[in-house]
Amino acid sequence: xxxxxxxTFAIQLQQMRTDVLAQLRAQQGGTTSRSESxxxxxxxxxxxxxxxNTERELSFALEERESAELIAIDAALKRIADGSFGLCVDCxxxxxxxxLHANPTAMRCIDCQTKTEA
Length: 118
Known about the structure:
The protein has about 120 residues and is mainly α. The protein has 2 domains: about 5-85, no CATH class; about 85-118, no CATH class. The chain is built from 5 helices and no strands. Helix 1 runs antiparallel to helix 3 and helix 2 packs across helix 3.
């Protein structure tokens, strides 16, 4: 992969990283969580204990997903730095650019990803 293309993906990944960190900060330190905002927008009152538990579980799930996304972004940036970005970690074949544009954190070609998910 050329340095120019790697730089393009690095910029995209850095922006994704900034966005995820902002979401995590808002989730952890905002005056209301996303689950509370969603409940309010839908007109749901969280007076009910089960509703409050559901909102809390949703909040934890969102934070966990964002943390996993941040780890994947950092791993992709590391692959750019070490020159292995765009190569499948399982078979070593080049990952198609269209796949990387759709998912710049992709570590595997489609065939290996399919095998991993099976």
